[in-house]
Amino acid sequence: MRMNDQPLKAFALDLYGRAGVAPACLRLQEKTALNVNLLLFSAWFGAGLRRELSPQIAAAAQERVEAWHRDIVLPLRAVRRRLKTGPSPAPNAATGALRGTVQSLEIEAELLELEELDAFARTLAAGPSPAAPEPLARAAMLEVVALAAGRPADGQERSDIALILSACFAPQELSPAPPAAPQSVPRETL
Fold it and tell me: Distance between CA 13 and CA 3 in Å, rounded?
């Protein structure tokens, strides 16, 4: 993955789209109430910016987007999920179209959250660490999972982090032409 000062949004969309990453992120989200954007931020902070994510920085990043996530992203997600099964008249073709619209709004809200986290990171004074990016990214993701769960990551959570980390540092597959616009984060699994 090309990481030299890449914007968080581009990094996150690329990483989330890699094989196995979305299911790992969603498992962590469901098990720990983790904000996936904070996890992607932590991977970028360590791998892309080569910076150490202290508990204080992790907490400040969470605080920076907490109200937005709670008041905007989560309600949109709840409506989208609810439209999948009901109440009546859902699910039907019309409510399916509405669900797609709500999903687009949820993704837009999450992309704005990523931009806010990017802006937050760039206000911090310290520069890159001399440490290798892979251990920095691992430690950063472990920190964010521990912050969300209120405890250190367990075995399955560490396994999911390892999968995401592996995808983060896997060579990018060559494609014939870049996409015209960034692809949205798929949410149909929920």
Answer: 13
Note if the bond before 178 is cis, omega within 30 degrees.
Answer: no
160 Cβ partners below 8 Å, 6+ apart? 24, 25, 27, 28
Convert the pLDDT of each residue in 137-189 to its tens digit: 999 999 999 999 999 999 999 999 999 999 999 987 544 444 444 444 545 44
Q: How far is CA 102 from CA 76, 105, 123, 161, 184, in A?
A: 7, 5, 32, 29, 13
Is residue 83 a contact partner of residue 95, using CB atoms and an 8 Å limit?
Answer: yes
* 3-state secondary structure (DSSP) of residue 5: coil
- pTM of the full predicted structure? 0.87
Three-state secondary structure call for residue 161? helix
Tokens of 169: 């540092």
The structure tokens 């494609």 sit at 175
Give the integer Cα–Cα distance in Å for 162 and 134. 10
Tokens, residue 10:
């581009």
Q: What is the pLDDT of residues 1-45, one digit of tens each?
A: 445 568 999 999 999 999 999 999 999 999 999 999 999 999 999
CB 11 within 8 A of CB 87: no
Tracing tokens 């969309």 back to the chain, one arrives at: 13
